[in-house]
Amino acid sequence: MTSLTDLTHLGEVVDVVIGVDTHVATHAAAVVDAHTGAVLDQITIESTALGYAELVAFADQHSGLRAWALEGTGSHGAGLTRHLLERDEVVIELDRPERAHRRNGAKSDPLDAIRAAREALARPRLGTPRHTGDRQAVAVLLAARRSAVQGAGDAQRQVFGLLIAAPEPIRTRFRDQNLPTVIAAAAQLRTHPSWDTETTTTVTVLRALARRAQALAAEAAVHEKAILAIVRSWRPDLLAQYGVGPIVAATVLCAWSHPGRIHSEAAFAMLAGVAPIPANSGQVTTRHRLNRYGDRQLNAALHTIALTRLRGHQPSRDYAQRRTSQGKTTREIRRCLKRYIARDLYRLLERAPATS
Asked: Any residues with CB less than 8 A from the CB of 95 and at least 6 apart, and which?
């Protein structure tokens, strides 16, 4: 059976494409002829189970093979996507419609639904929605951990900022201590009846912020433990790679999702923002520009792997030394190494893990 990612034109296998513009409360859908691009019908439904059933019944009124083109399959369109996949419908994921194609700046939900269908017909490569199950569980845990880590960091910085302008007795107590020691001590602070309002309030807030930082750090640790358990049961071979810890592995798996979703290692590198972008001019034909596109979380994960390997992975250190002798800068070497890491991870992920 031909995979969607192998097609050169969606019109080769379906008769109609149903484009859906997804929102929190409603979804707008348009049925477009796959051969002519003509709009055959339109509907707007509520984003509920009854609305999804109504949309499928609406699609059944149009005979022939069909495919669905959705934007936001992991957000506003997640419910509809699950509903369609449970019924073995062909669902195509669109990252974002080409807004520049709007005529005279016109915009409406029905128009965006039509554009989604026509864009799916025009694209040379088609993407499928990310899997749910383990992948979605890891994504939820990653988001929760990221929020906890950021909140803990914010609280720690607020403690540091308060101490700078705190009354002198408090500043003296915490002088020359590192931040972890400061947080632990600040969480145990007690007020004294003889203190003035400023000192009492400062100590009260310092204690609250320090305890908040500790609670969020503990929450982040719980999430990381849950992430490690899922990743170990899903793809333990990824954790065996040098420089790949549970958070990095989870980030890579969430972006990749499942075999066949990303059609090549070059596409995976582009998704990660590590594919080289030519910046040639005139006789200069070897210059490349930093790629600032793609999944930045995945890019950060590859960056972490690269830094870890440059510190302790001898083959990577040898590669860096060889490229340095060729005149490459440290930043250029890191970019090249991230591209190679993306290639190796993609090949590993596309292979089925060995069973014991």
From this structure: 71, 127
> What is the pLDDT averaged over residues 29-41?
93
Sign of CA dihedral 64, 67, 70, 73: positive
Count of Cβ atoms closer than 10 Å to residue 229 Cβ: 12
Rg over CA atoms, the chain: 26
As given in the structure block, the two tokens for residue 223 are 């999430």
* Nearest CA-CA partner of 300 in 149, 81, 152: 149
Beta strands in 223-341 (DSSP E): 277-278, 288-289
155 is written with which tokens?
Answer: 């609280």
Phi and psi (nearest 5°) for 23? -140, 175
Torsion of CA 7, 11, 16, 20, to 10 degrees: 50
pLDDT higher than 80, residue 50: yes
C-alpha distances (whole Å) from 232 to each of 138, 236, 237, 299, 331 are 12, 5, 8, 22, 32
Q: What is the mean pLDDT of residues 68-92?
A: 90
- Helix or strand holding residue 343 (H, E): helix 330-350
Task: Enter the pTM of the model.
Answer: 0.78
Residue 19, classed as helix, strand or coil, is strand
Residue 6 pLDDT grade (very low, low, confident, very high; cuts 50, 70, 90)? low
pLDDT score, position 356: 47
pLDDT category of residue 1 using cuts at 50, 70 and 90 = very low
Element (H, E) at 22: strand 16-22
187: phi then psi, degrees, rounded to nearest 5: -70, -15
- Describe the chain by its helix, strand, coil percentages, rounded to 5: 55, 10, 30
> What are the tens digits of pLDDT across the range 153-185?
999 999 999 999 899 889 999 988 999 999 999
**Contact (CB, 8 A) for 276 and 288:** yes
